[in-house]
Structure to design on (697 residues):
């Protein structure tokens, strides 16, 4: 069966939410932290005040791509989950050595599937709801789950995406481990995927996760453009070729950045003038290659 | 296409492997004790604790890594090793579907304790395995598995969901053999978390479906099912121990942590699972309930079970034996469901003296009967509701 990406939305280190497209990725320098829209204006949901920025980012993008429609499944990927709430709960525990009562809010919000749960709550979606936490390949595992679900006929429309945040504790860890922490970013990307074509849709041909570069090179043969990202630090560039563009600096490095790269691939196919940035005149097939630790490679292929 | 269970692996407060867990269940003796191993707890808690410290577990598993391994990962390897015993030659075909909510938190929280109080970063390297995906990457390495793993984290329904998604991969023809389940260790983080919600019974053993229940006891453990397609077992002449007949996930969409009074999510999950299995409710001989002993869950689940099964089915929660093992629960209880099928035993719901509904109470004692189909429930935060159905072979 055919599967299509019909809508996409991202919040990342350049202002993409309000500008409505990823043009900003070519015009501005990507920051280490997300450029947030005014959530109070766009998110009219109960409990907004208690939500950390990762939940706000995810809700904004997820609700935006679905609009009035209810999906048949909600599937979310996140490498590190809700770090902000997790650390805040640890702080609360530490401050509370006498064992008195602690507020449960941070604990509740720290659960990995809070994003998926909140999306379901706001949209009143009673259907299949999954959260994938597989490091730098969290997005691809979420996407595979979505494709399996659709191919079994269980869903016609799926809301699928990924989110990760850049938390100060990560900088502390990264610095102690001698990692280039200035390359770290954060962001959220959500897609509406469907078994029906629509305006501005792109074919989602396949998503796979491979373990060696020979297989990767075989898989991407015949594509016009390869958008390559490192989802981890200090990985080098594992693929060569004139049409292989390393956009890790553009997305910045975080465990969900292949979702942003996939959004960029979608945008290029929908707005062919963006392909001029890469000197590829007739760009019809794009592969996104996500290198995680030089060990696992997520490959998502789109075409028009 | 049919999917079969060909082996199981489990460790919990009841026992270190499948046989020991069966023995504990039939003895009707709880594995819940005073929690001793978790560090820096502010007060006393009961829980289904596995009485081996991390060093002892590493010794049993012959771990010689230079970096520190979180307890969640150690328990996972223990159970996963049992599950693939006898089938090691097939690891090239295998894909792992893991589940965890705690991840490496048992080490991370010890680091954070020193970091917060004294600014010490001595243990910062322990954060390397903090994230929930690391157990699966590490298991892959230890078991010699090549295919990239999956890790599902949906709170208390995580392992059940890992099994559902693993089954989807087989139904799509992408896998013939999968290892699916979950793991979670006890941690100061989760103990304090459930205590902050005021649903942790600190005074006594948890009492699922009892009107006097005051909340859960947490537990720890890991469990995996080795699942294979019909084609695989025929090709390799393997005798299955049970059949995976179906599984479904639905969402309550009512509240972040509490389940709805009309049990929407729970009923949808059970009915969808029955539909997928092609079974009517009266084909189910035993329901292994989620039954955490919180006021909210057991109310909702009692209502859901009565609704779906028209007020008549043998059911019990086995969390009185193991405590609530969070992301591992769906896996451990899947193994218990399979034990029920293999041994024609519906397990007791221990510590329930005054059931919510006398007319439809959980099993007070182990019941010997022919068991052809078992349904197992797991309901998590975020309205996440999952039901699995296993059948005898």
């Amino acid at each position: 069966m055919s599967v299509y990406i019909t809508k996409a939305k991202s919040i990342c280190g350049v202002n993409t939410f309000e500008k409505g497209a990823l043009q900003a990725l070519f015009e501005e320098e990507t920051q280490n932290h997300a450029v947030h829209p005014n959530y109070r204006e766009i998110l009219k949901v109960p409990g907004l005040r208690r939500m950390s920025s990762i939940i706000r980012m995810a809700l904004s993008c997820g609700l935006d791509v679905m609009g009035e429609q209810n999906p048949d499944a909600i599937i979310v990927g996140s490498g590190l989950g809700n770090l902000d709430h997790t650390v805040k709960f640890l702080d609360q525990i530490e401050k509370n050595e006498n064992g008195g009562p602690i507020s449960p809010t941070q604990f509740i919000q720290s659960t990995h599937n809070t994003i998926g749960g909140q999306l379901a709550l706001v949209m009143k979606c009673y259907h299949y709801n999954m959260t994938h936490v597989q490091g730098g390949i969290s997005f691809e595992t979420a996407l595979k789950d979505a494709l399996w679900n659709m191919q079994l006929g269980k869903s016609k429309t799926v809301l699928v995406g990924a989110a990760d945040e850049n938390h100060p504790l990560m900088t502390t860890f990264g610095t102690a481990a001698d990692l280039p922490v200035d390359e770290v970013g954060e962001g959220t990307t959500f897609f509406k995927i469907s078994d029906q074509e629509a305006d501005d849709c792109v074919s989602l041909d396949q998503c796979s996760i491979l373990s060696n570069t020979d297989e990767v090179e075989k898989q991407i043969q015949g594509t016009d453009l390869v958008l390559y990202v490192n989802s981890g630090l200090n990985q080098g560039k594992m693929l060569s070729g004139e049409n292989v563009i390393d956009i890790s600096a553009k997305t910045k490095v975080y465990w969900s950045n292949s979702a942003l790269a996939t959004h960029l691939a979608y945008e290029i196919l929908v707005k062919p003038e963006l392909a001029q940035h890469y000197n590829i005149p007739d760009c019809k097939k794009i592969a996104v290659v996500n290198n995680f630790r030089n060990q696992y490679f997520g490959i998502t292929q789109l075409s028009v | 296409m049919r999917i079969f269970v060909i082996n199981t692996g489990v460790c919990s407060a009841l026992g270190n492997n499948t046989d020991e867990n069966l023995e504990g269940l039939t003895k009707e003796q709880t594995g819940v004790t005073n929690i001793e191993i978790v560090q820096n707890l502010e007060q006393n808690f009961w829980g289904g604790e596995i009485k081996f410290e991390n060093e002892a577990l590493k010794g049993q598993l012959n771990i010689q890594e230079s970096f520190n391994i979180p307890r969640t990962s150690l328990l996972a390897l223990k159970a996963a090793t049992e599950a693939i015993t006898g089938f090691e030659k097939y690891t090239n075909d295998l894909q792992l579907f893991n589940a965890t909510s705690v991840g490496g938190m048992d080490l991370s929280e010890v680091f954070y304790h020193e970091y917060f109080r004294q600014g010490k970063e001595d243990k910062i390297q322990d954060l390397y395995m903090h994230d929930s995906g690391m157990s699966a990457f590490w298991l892959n390495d230890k078991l010699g598995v090549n295919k990239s793993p999956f890790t599902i984290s949906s709170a208390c329904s995580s392992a059940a969901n890992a099994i559902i998604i693993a089954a989807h991969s087989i139904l799509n023809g992408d896998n013939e053999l999968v290892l699916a389940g979950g793991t979670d260790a006890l941690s100061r983080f989760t103990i304090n978390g459930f205590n902050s919600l005021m649903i942790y019974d600190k005074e006594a053993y948890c009492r699922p479906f009892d009107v006097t229940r005051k909340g859960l006891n947490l537990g720890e453990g890991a469990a995996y099912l080795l699942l294979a397609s019909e084609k695989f077992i025929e090709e390799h002449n393997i005798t299955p121990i049970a059949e995976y007949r179906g599984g479904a996930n639905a969402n309550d969409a009512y509240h972040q942590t509490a389940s709805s009074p009309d049990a929407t999510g729970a009923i949808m999950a059970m009915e969808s699972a029955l539909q997928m299995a092609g079974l009517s409710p009266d084909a189910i001989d035993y329901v292994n309930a989620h039954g955490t002993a919180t006021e909210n869950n057991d109310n909702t689940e009692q209502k859901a079970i009565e609704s779906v099964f028209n007020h008549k089915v043998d059911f019990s929660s086995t969390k009185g034996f193991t405590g609530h093992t969070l992301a591992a629960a769906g896996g451990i209880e899947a193994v218990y469901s399979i034990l029920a099928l293999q041994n024609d035993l519906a397990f007791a719901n221990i510590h329930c003296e005054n059931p919510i509904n006398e007319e439809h109470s959980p099993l007070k004692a182990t019941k010997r009967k022919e068991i052809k189909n078992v349904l197992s429930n797991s309901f998590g935060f975020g309205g996440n509701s999952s039901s699995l159905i296993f059948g005898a072979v």
Strands of chain A lie at 4-11, 73-77, 128-132, 157-164, 187-194, 202-210, 225-230, 244-246, 285-292, 296-303.
